[in-house]
Specification:
disordered C terminus; 0% strand; mainly alpha; 17 helices
Length: 485
């Protein structure tokens, strides 16, 4: 029997409420699980399918490209046509694409499957939290989202162990195929126990042209950056891709400026703090994305770690974030967001300098563990205040859009770093990762340090993280914490 609050909506602690939370946790947990283990599977994928460094870059970037380009659009589709419907369709698409990835006979099919996974995730990820936000009463929304956050954190903690075990004992393909039974249960729960909700104020028509032009803009740019080092940046295909990306981005700006229901309202960028916080997001998450991509390969290829050992090596990051993030949030609520946003990226920068010391012959306790601990501390200081600063820079009407923009920017920043960092460090099929890895970590460290300086220069010191009670902020904060860890 459904138990509702006097003002409408489910009560936290009711059976009906727990069914909704269970569906959202299981569905989003599938996406988080893949996000934590695919990097660990990269060396095994390369041994099985080949493809070289370029194939590994596309395996990660194809997912980030479609997810980052479409996640704001996916959220708007859920608001317009139904959050439960968006969740179910997104999860079904994500799972079908996972099966394609698990059965891929070559790298090209795997990359296609990863791109389709990202498109499904663009519906699934925003819908999972908006279902809770819309289903629970305002008074019970915060505890419900807190329960979702804590339970979803379990998938991040379990992911490296489960993924590494499956890769070592069976095959990397099970990392994708295991999604099928989990998704079947999540879809059944959603269709049976989750009420359908819509945003009655949503635009009548989604911004299809804006979403398509942004995807083409990012896709053309990423193609040029990844393939350019292999065929030459003056090759006709590379020049054509770059020009297409630039023209598509110009179309995107024109569309967003003139349509009545823009996917990305450009007026949000008039705020100096909004721009500054997103610049911090760009440099910090670019550094994290590039560093974690190379680190997972470096640990296995250069240091001889198994997939399980590589996956579990940075578990301290997840543990620290689960234990310390609430306290860091309370601290920032008292002293404002600027100081944590300044210090946090600089602590992350220090962790990447420690990562530069990870080399053959070093033990886990003297090289990897110190870097993991410092990274966890830095992320605890950075994530919640960063998202709070983004949302405090816009009016209430644009809060959901602002969190979606920041979420997308974080993913696109990681995507571009994975495309660019191997090139600028001289890494190729003919060079050693042992030589390139320290350079990549130093570059990533400098980027994070710059992020701290940008935060100090642009963030209002009075911004508090009290706004994290807003469901969109909680969603964005948690998703990015999962992604970062």
């Amino acid at each position: 029997m459904r138990r509702e609050a006097p003002g409408g909506g489910l009560r936290y602690g009711s059976a009906a409420g727990w069914w909704v939370i269970a569906a959202a946790v299981l569905g989003s947990g599938i996406a988080f699980l893949d996000a934590t283990v695919v990097n660990v599977a990269l060396p095994s994928i390369q041994r099985d399918l080949g493809g070289g460094l370029t194939g590994l870059q596309w395996t990660v970037d194809a997912y980030l490209l479609t997810l980052g380009s479409l996640i704001v659009f996916g959220g708007s589709l859920g608001d317009l046509y139904g959050r439960r419907k968006g969740f179910v369709l997104g999860l079904a698409a994500f799972t079908a694409a996972s099966c394609l990835c698990g059965a891929a006979p070559n790298v090209a099919i795997l990359i296609l499957g990863r791109a389709l996974q990202g498109a499904g995730g663009a519906l699934l990820v925003p819908a999972s939290l908006s279902m809770i936000s819309a289903s629970f009463s305002p008074a019970d929304r915060g505890p419900a989202i807190g329960a979702w956050s804590g339970l979803s954190g379990v998938s991040t903690a379990i992911g490296p162990f489960l993924g590494g075990y499956l890769i070592d004992s069976v095959s990397w393909r099970l990392v994708f195929l295991i999604n099928l039974p989990l998704a079947a249960v999540a879809i059944w729960l959603a269709r049976t126990h989750v009420p359908e909700t819509r945003d009655t104020d949503a635009a009548a028509r989604p911004d299809v042209v804006g979403a398509a032009s942004l995807a083409v803009a990012v896709g053309g740019s990423v193609f040029a950056l990844i393939e350019g080092p292999n065929v030459g940046f003056t090759a006709p295909s590379i020049i054509a891709a770059a020009v297409l990306g630039i023209l598509a981005f110009a179309v995107f700006l024109a569309v967003e400026r003139h349509v009545s229901n823009p996917m990305v309202p450009l007026e949000t960028f008039r705020s100096r703090q909004f721009v500054g916080a997103n610049l911090v997001t760009v440099v910090v998450y670019a550094a994290l994305g590039g560093a974690m991509f190379l680190l997972a390969i470096h640990l296995q290829r250069s240091l001889g770690y198994s997939a399980l050992e590589a996956g579990a090596s940075f578990l301290p990051v997840t543990i620290l974030m689960l234990l310390l993030s609430p306290g860091a949030g309370r601290l920032a609520s008292r002293i404002g967001a600027r100081l944590p946003m300044t210090v946090g990226p600089m602590v992350v920068a220090s962790s990447m300098l420690l990562m530069a010391r990870i080399e053959p012959g070093k033990t886990y306790t003297t090289s990897v563990l110190p870097a993991a601990v410092v990274l966890g501390l830095g992320l605890c200081l950075t994530v919640a205040p960063l998202t709070a600063a983004v949302l405090a820079a816009v009016d209430d009407h644009h809060i959901g859009v602002a969190s979606g923009i920041n979420n997308a920017i974080a993913r696109l920043a990681a995507l571009l770093a994975i495309a660019v960092l191997p090139f600028v460090t001289g890494l190729s099929a003919h060079t050693s990762l042992v030589d390139a890895f320290p350079k990549a970590m130093v570059i990533s460290s400098v980027a994070c340090f710059v992020g701290g300086i940008v935060a100090f220069a642009t963030i209002d010191r009075t911004v508090s993280v009290r706004n994290v009670v807003h469901p969109d902020l909680s969603s964005a904060c948690h998703v990015e914490a999962q992604r970062a860890s």
